[in-house]
Amino acid sequence: MQCPRCNWQNHASYTQCFSCQAPLVADMPAPRAPAGRGQPAQTPAPARLVEVFPGTMARLGATLIDGACMAAFPVALALAWVFARPAFDSAPGATYPAALALGILGLFLPALMDALGQGSAGKRLLGMRVATRTGERPGIARSVLRHFLKYSLTLALTLAVPFLLHRLLTALFGERGLHSSITGTFVVSRHASDTAIQQAVALVRGPGWFLKALVMLGGVAALSFAAMVAVALWHQGEEPANPRREAVRQLDGAARTVLGLVENHYRSTGAFPASAAAIGLGRPGQLPTGFQAMAIDPANGVVRLTIADSSGDRALAGKHLVYTPVLRTRKQQTDIHKWQCGSDDIVRGDRSFSCRHEATGAAK
What is the rounded CA–CA span in Å between residue 171 and residue 208? Predict the structure, then answer.
């Protein structure tokens, strides 16, 4: 069959030109109605097959749209965390796993939409979807693996050496790409029927088992290397165990109750409290466990808490945690944005990471 665009001679069963990927017009034989007496048999007109596979530019556009959506989700999550951070400062251990889970869910949201819906945002906008050889939607596991291969191995290799590796991947896996070839999926037109998809994909050959095994081994090796680097960087920032530092971390958590009272007073009056009695902590025993005295500078709001003997570490008794407020003005209203924790008499190595700011001598 000759291509009307580039005149390439294709096999009679091809629906697209092997050279330029243009759709081919095939003569589709249809059942003929029995000819009556004196009535000649009618020859059916050639029918045009539905274009099943979208072009490269359309698939690239869908990838860019999906990538923009994936980038927007972590940005929105980070902004939400910035605005809601004061409410979760007292329990960061419960919020970090939730934020990480939401971030991972956002990155794999296009894959879930391909598996459970009518396609990701980019594919739906451009009239495409992901299908298997039977025309059905891929399962969650296959779709997630396809998404991971697409935005990790394929994208990373293509960005590393743009022209050479793109040509190499195209020669090995065709226009489908590594991610679709390995997972046995196809990006097809959303308007194509299952029958048309099955007829079109029957002509497409997939990679052999050796190439699939090679890619999977390469992916496992890349993941292992990335995990080793992440673990090395994570443990690099850790310090040896220090019971005194853990005691300071617990005292810092207990002090957040006092800081919350100071914030409420500043929010309602527009000024820092003059003393501990102004926020209801003037009598003995009203301070949080581990502290025996409190002083506050009404000029700048610096809070100085004296550690008691019951703190769990007698070496910390009589020493201090100093909290300096950081103000923020929004919509002509000034509020306490966060507190910087420090100390002027506790060794820096004995303080937790969140309590290593330089403390002033105010509020003594």
Answer: 14
Rounded Cα–Cα distance for residues 228 and 242 (Å): 26
Q: Report d(CA 17, CA 189) in Å as an integer.
A: 17
Q: What is the mean pLDDT of each run of 10 residues along the chain (364 residues)?
A: 72 72 61 50 42 81 86 77 61 60 79 86 88 84 84 63 57 68 81 80 72 72 74 60 86 91 92 90 86 91 89 83 90 87 89 79 49
Query: Tell me, what amino acid is at 87?
Result: A
What are residue 358's phi and psi, to 5 degrees? Answer: -75, 125
Determine the distance from the C-alpha atom of residue 147 to the mean position of all C-alpha atoms in its chain, rounded to a whole number: 12
CA distance 4 to 20: 10
Structural domains present in the chain: 1-32 (no CATH), 56-207 (no CATH), 243-355 (3.30.700.10)
Q: In the beta sheet, which residues pair with residue 303?
A: 296, 323
**Whole-angstrom distance, CA of residue 83 vs CA of residue 337:** 10
Backbone phi, then psi, for 306, in 5-degree steps? -95, 130
